[in-house]
């Protein structure tokens, strides 16, 4: 598979992580370099590991996981999105949960990378190697996630009062997009 196809796949897979990074930065309003590194690094790592896992699972488990992977992604994103949506603006100062840490980061990393597992399945079926595509996918996701956080901080300054609702709505919309793509074949 040529580099253009791999980059196209990588950018497509990174779009959910980009949107979640923007929403997370809007929620936080200010981000530190360590937070950008944690989120973009985690998103990049999971986006690189999921195709490898999918490749190893190959055709054997593809049919079983494909039946519900979209529900897992939707559930995880909807959970975090609803939590963000219903946080009160005054809670967003000191008591805001930080999506660049702990369980919330893990959930977001898994939810934004589940589709990458399907890419690994595809590569296994087509008998393509997965190592370099996985590295490229991870690096592209990491770069776009860092960019998304920078953009989200700037957007957050203009919409502080509705930042949590906007961020939550974005995550719910991404979850619905994943769900509809799988259920309706969009």
List keywords for this structure.
186 residues, mainly alpha, 6 helices, 82% helix, globular
Describe the structure.
The chain is mainly α and 186 residues long. The chain has one domain. The protein has helices at 3-28, 33-66, 69-86, 102-125, 131-158, 163-184. Helix 1 packs antiparallel against helix 6. The longest helix has 34 residues, at 33-66. It is globular and about 50 Å long. The mean pLDDT is 83.
Concise account of the structure shown:
The protein has 186 residues and is mainly alpha-helical.
What are the SSEs and their pairings?
Layout: H1 3-28, H2 33-66, H3 69-86, H4 102-125, H5 131-158, H6 163-184
Q: What oligomeric state best describes the polypeptide chains here?
A: single chain
- Counting DSSP E segments of at least 2 residues, the number of strands comes to 0
Q: What are the secondary-structure elements, in order, as H or E?
A: HHHHHH
Proportion of residues in extended strands: under 5%
Largest sheet composition? none
Q: What's the number of domains?
A: 1
What are the low-pLDDT stretches, counting only 5+ consecutive residues below 50?
none
